């Protein structure tokens, strides 16, 4: 009797192991079908919709963290308040790209030509915010100058205000694509992205400034050349734009002699087959 019971137990155990093995194999072989992932058609409209959904999700996540923080503050749970604050801090410190760039959506065929009062106001507001992004705090710093210790306040740049200025630039380009201020807005957006360290995006906006207005009153070609040269190591393109800047932007606040020197440093020797990289 005991022998039969033992044999039955072994058979049952073998069947269970086989069943689990078949289940694991099935999970490994099966691929997720359309019921798991929506089919996505690569298009500009799809990208815009997905980017907007992502932005809304980010905002909802941030609001939910603030909500649970308020709950723990009311209940007096200091440990969990610290957890939420750490998560909020890490959330604020990571880069959050818009993915859909207004300069990219607009393309290079826009022309800055029309005087539009509403667009003028938007640009004026953006510029005003941008020019007041420096925040001075009354925290003294000891600075040595010619053996004299001087008291100086600490200065920070408000990234929130920079983002507000950037938003207004993008709004202007989106809502008033024929305005004579689109090149101004593009140049200002380029400066902001350069400050953030988003050099490829800065290049795109700077390029739009002179693509939308070949006589733009900014050294946009020079700014592109400088980033390509020193930040992105695209020195062949930089050389071409340095030359264009020297030809078309010499009246702006740039040093022609410095540009000529850099051109001489980048230009290959005559009869040289070495490409600039």
Main attributes?
277 residues, mainly alpha, two-stranded antiparallel ribbon, 11 helices, 2 strands
Verbal overview:
The protein has 11 helices and 2 strands, in the order αααααββαααααα. Strands 1-2 form a two-stranded antiparallel sheet. It has a domain at about 35-100. The chain is mainly alpha-helical. The radius of gyration is 29 Å and the shape is elongated. The longest helix is centred in the N-terminal third of the chain and has 32 residues, at about 45-75. Helix 6 (about 160-175) packs antiparallel against helix 7 (about 180-195) and helix 10 runs antiparallel to helix 11 (about 255-265).
The H/E string reads HHHHHEEHHHHHH
Uncertain regions spanning at least 5 consecutive residues: 22-37, 139-152
Number of strands: 2
On the 0 to 100 scale, the average pLDDT is: 78
Individual helix count: 11
Q: What's the Cα radius of gyration?
A: 29 Å
Sheet having the most strands: 2 strands, antiparallel
Helix % is: 55-70%
Anisotropy-based shape: elongated
Strand order of the largest sheet: 1-2
SS class: mainly alpha
What portion of the residues fall into strands of 2 or more residues?
A: 5-15%
Would you spell out the secondary-structure blueprint of this structure?
Blueprint: H1 2-29, H2 44-75, H3 78-93, H4 102-106, H5 117-130, E1 134-145, E2 148-157, H6 159-175, H7 182-196, H8 199-212, H9 220-230, H10 235-248, H11 256-266
Antiparallel strand pairs: 1-2
């Amino acid at each position: 009797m005991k022998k039969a019971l033992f044999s039955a137990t072994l058979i049952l155990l073998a069947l269970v192991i086989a069943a689990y093995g078949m289940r694991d194999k099935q999970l490994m072989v099966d691929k997720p079908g359309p019921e798991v992932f929506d089919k996505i058609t690569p298009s500009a409209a799809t990208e815009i919709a997905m980017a907007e959904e992502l932005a809304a999700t980010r905002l909802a996540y941030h609001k939910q963290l603030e909500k649970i923080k308020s709950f723990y503050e009311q209940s007096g749970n200091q440990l969990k308040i610290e957890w939420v604050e750490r998560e909020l801090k890490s959330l604020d410190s990571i880069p959050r790209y818009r993915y859909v760039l207004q300069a990219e959506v607009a393309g290079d065929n826009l022309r800055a030509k029309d005087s539009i009062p509403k667009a003028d106001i938007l640009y004026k507001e953006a510029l005003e915010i941008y020019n007041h992004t420096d925040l001075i705090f009354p925290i003294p710093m000891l600075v040595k100058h010619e053996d004299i210790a001087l008291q100086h306040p600490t200065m920070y740049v408000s990234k929130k205000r920079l983002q507000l200025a950037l938003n207004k630039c993008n709004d202007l380009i989106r809502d008033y694509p024929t305005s004579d201020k689109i090149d101004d807005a593009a140049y200002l957006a380029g400066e902001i992205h350069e400050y953030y360290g988003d050099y490829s995006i800065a290049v795109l906006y700077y390029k739009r400034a002179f693509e939308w207005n070949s006589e733009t009153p900014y050294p946009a070609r020079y700014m592109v050349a400088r980033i390509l040269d020193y930040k992105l190591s695209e020195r062949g393109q930089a050389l071409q734009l340095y030359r264009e800047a020297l030809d078309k932007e010499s009246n702006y606040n740039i040093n022609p002699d410095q540009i000529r020197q850099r051109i001489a440093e980048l230009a290959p020797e005559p009869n040289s087959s070495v490409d600039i990289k």
